[in-house]
Amino acid sequence: MKQTMGLVGRKIGMTRIFGPDGNAIPVTVIQAGPCPIVEKRTPERNGYSALQIGFEEVPAHRLNKPERGHQQKANCGFYKMLKEIRLPDASGFEVGQSLTVEIFQRGDRVAVTGTSKGRGFAGVIRRWNFGGAPATHGHEKVHRKPGSIGQCAWPSKVFKGKKLPGHYGAKRSTVLNVEIVDVRPEENVVLVRGQVPGPKQGIVVLRKMK
Description:
41% strand; 4-stranded antiparallel sheet
């Protein structure tokens, strides 16, 4: 499935709502848009087609001079963050046009992209779900160690990609085919089924799939 038009939003948190059949549905609440179009990318000028959209309006003095100069060309305010949404054809959109949650409908499928929670340095049991060493039978102070990670004689190295302790989380992550349970234009809110990447107040990008 291809990703098309989208919005930038902020993850408010999770709750649940009840469907027509009375079953509880876990949902993530996302405040998305309104996102004005700050710039259009065209194949003739940029080599590809895309829209650059803004999110969360801020006073002009909160931006540096290059950012102000870039955003004031659109004459639609100044925004904390800009995101680029690639499209097969952006000719139907104009700079200054505002995109809202009304581009989505209940039952649509979207791809949600965010930055996963950063959990700092983690061992192999937490990071990779290793089983660990036995608790007894001569094992001392190695219960959460990874065990053997290579060979002693040949090739005398650890192969790239080996699962080892390290930084866990804080990576760009995308969940595909997420169902939109409800759209509330008066509140600029979208409810999607289940969980999405990132902490509360984290920035996410929602893109329609077709």
